[in-house]
Design brief:
Elements lengths: L1 H34 L5 E9 L2 E2 L2 E8 L7 E6 L2 E7 L2 E10 L8 H9 L19 E5 L4 E8 L5
Parallel strand pairs: 1-8
Antiparallel strand pairs: 1-2, 1-5, 3-4, 3-6, 6-7
């Protein structure tokens, strides 16, 4: 008889508690989804220098007005992808160029030395390359693609 009375008291209490939790979770979900800031745009694309893909480098998108954060990412085999870029006018800056070719073994290094060869520095994109430091507009779309075509100064 006592257990029956506890069941009668417990069921409505549990039901009200469950109702309250569901209501609270609903408020939390609405608050979280409505108050979040935009995570920015994902900007991806290709970078070429003198018609060839940039093997390795770095691309930076800086606000044209100098206000706000810059965003950047690595360039690998002519391709890049940067997440979290805020919309607006940006200045695109590319650094890097090619890969350095190192000897794969001490034997190969000895052969190079015997021929009088030295390790060559990787070709680099000059800061004044045509198309470098150009202005682009990042829109509010979730994804945006850029094709960055650079060339040697004076070409």
């Amino acid at each position: 008889m006592i257990s029956h009375d506890l069941r009668a008291i417990t069921r409505p209490s549990l039901f009200r508690l469950a109702q309250g939790l569901v209501l609270l979770m609903g408020f939390v979900l609405v608050a979280v989804s409505g108050c979040g800031k935009s995570s920015g745009v994902t900007v991806s694309g290709t970078v070429t220098f003198d018609g060839r893909p940039v093997e390795e480098g770095y691309i930076t998108l800086s606000p044209a007005d100098g206000k706000g954060p810059s965003a950047g990412g690595p360039i690998k085999e002519g391709k890049f992808s940067i997440s979290g870029v805020l919309p607006g006018e940006k200045i695109v800056s590319v650094t890097g160029g090619g890969k350095m070719q190192f000897p794969k073994s001490s034997e190969e290094m000895a052969q190079m030395a015997a021929r009088g060869q030295q390790i060559q520095a990787a070709p680099q994109i000059p800061p004044n390359a045509r198309g470098n430091n150009q202005k682009v507009t990042i829109t509010g779309q979730a994804q945006q693609t850029l094709e960055i075509s650079l060339s040697s100064p004076g070409s």
